[in-house]
Structures are given as structure tokens and as C-alpha cells.
Amino acid sequence: MTDRVVLKWAVSVDDTPHKIGGGEIVHVACQYPEDPTTVTVWTVEPRNEGARVLPRTVQVYGTGQPLPLFAQPLGSTVAAGGRLVWHLFWMPQPDMHRTSTEVREPQPEEAR
């Protein structure tokens, strides 16, 4: 029986927080080399809706950009043929006081 699935999330490199699944992160990469403005994240999520974990808020930062004290690293990836390195951070502060009913369910990116 399969009770988990790997889902893919597209996170824009745009200086704003984004919601992705709250499961274990499998990989962080720039899946499409021609598009250095999107970081792709793969997470392991439960298939059963009743077992869903709360989504997490993440944000992409470039090397040398200032980081909030509460930001926690999740992974990094090289983009633009090595000219850029993006770092994915969990932003726990905005989610700390929300309940599961206040968090909008994120939608995984369609498989390409």
C-alpha cells in the first residue's frame, strides 16, 4: 500500500514568501536551466487527506542577500550556468500563530 507521494512545487525568485507542502524535502533544484527565476522543490506528502501536514512558508534568497534571523535553510541550487546560487529558506515566523483552518491549501505544480 502506498500512503505517500512526492509532489513538486515551483517557488518564484521574487523576494516574497510562498507556500509549499509541509512534508520532508527531497530535493531543491532549478529544474529548467533556461528559467533561473524559479526554484523547484520536491516534498514527500501523505496521500491521505486526513494525514496532511500543514503547508510551510518558504522564500528564496541569493548569495549575499540579508536574511531574517528566523529564516532556516532548506537547500540550495545553482542557476544560470553557475552564475547564480539560490538558497531556499523556511520562514517559520509568519506561520507560528496560524491554525490549519487559517492556512490556504497549496496546490502542487502540474507535472511537465
Description:
By secondary structure, the chain is an all-beta fold. The protein has one domain (4-95). Helices cover 0% and strands 44% of the residues. The chain contains no helices and 7 strands. The protein has strands at residues 4-12, 18-20, 24-29, 38-46, 56-62, 72-79, 84-90.
Whole-number total of structural domains? 1
Low-pLDDT segments, ≥5 res: 97-104
- Could you tell me the mean pLDDT? 86
Strands, total number: 7
For the termini, the CA-CA separation is: 26 Å
Q: What count of helical segments does DSSP give?
A: 0
Order of helices and strands: EEEEEEE
Class derived from helix and strand content: mainly beta
Give a short account of the largest sheet: 4 strands, antiparallel
Shape call: globular
Strand line-up across the major sheet:
2-5-7-6
> Helix coverage percent of residues?
under 10%
Q: In percent, how much strand structure appears in the residues?
A: 35-45%
- The radius of gyration is 14 Å
Which keywords apply here?
single chain; 112 residues; mainly beta; 4-stranded antiparallel sheet; 3-stranded antiparallel sheet; 0% helix
Task: Walk me through the topology.
Elements lengths: L3 E9 L5 E3 L3 E6 L8 E9 L9 E7 L9 E8 L4 E7 L22
Antiparallel strand pairs: 1-4, 2-5, 3-4, 5-7, 6-7
